[in-house]
Description:
Elements: H1 2-11, H2 13-20, H3 28-36, E1 43-47, H4 53-58, E2 64-69, H5 72-84, E3 90-94, E4 107-113, H6 118-121, H7 127-141, E5 142-156, H8 170-176, E6 180-185, E7 188-189, H9 193-204, H10 206-215, E8 219-220, E9 222-230
Parallel strand pairs: 1-2, 1-4, 2-3, 4-5
Antiparallel strand pairs: 5-9, 6-9, 7-8
Helix pairs in contact: 2-9, 9-10
Amino acid sequence: MSEQQRQIYQTDGDRYEALISREDYLGNIPRALDEIVNVEGLDVLDLGAGTGRLAVMLAPRAKSMRAFDASEEMLRVCRQKLEAGGLSNWKVEVADHRQLPIANNSADLAVSGWSVSYLAVWNPDSWRAELEKWLGEMKRVLRRGSYIVLFESLGTGNESPIELEHLKDFYPWLGEVRFQNKWIRTDYKFESIEEAEELSRFFFGDELGDKVRENNWVILPECTGVWWRKI
């Protein structure tokens, strides 16, 4: 399944954005973040920014926003959205989570949605070392007292949280390195059952597409974990 998603990240930014624009229609993500840290006036990093969901949300409140992703296709859409916002305090560039093109101690907050876990998923033999490299890079680029805030899946098509099999190493590792956590609902609201089925099938696969159709889900339930830690 992750290989299908990996291909989408490289080639299909517009359809991915169509899906993501329907997510969290109740606005629980910004509320959850505000409960952890006040974003106003901070130098913010968005890791695995994708098409810019978090970057666009936070840039108007931040002193600066630097958005990174491994996929130029995702960042193409992210740039378009930030440009449409009329702000000039942002920069978007291709970069790996473990090697960011920024100076030591130059940011106040790192956020990442549905991305850092891929270091574990795509590196099954060296996942722990890759995650430790990432955490070391966070300690390098963030100022003392800064927060890391991660959003990761606890089940799409689920009304209460479940631990996903492909993240079975990732969840306990976050606890080992002293991240706190809570969970929120980030339900999608689609314009029609046809759109719900088509976009769910496109990204999540046929099993969820079938479930959407069977349940007539114009509102698709989703649970998301929020993990945070101060550096």
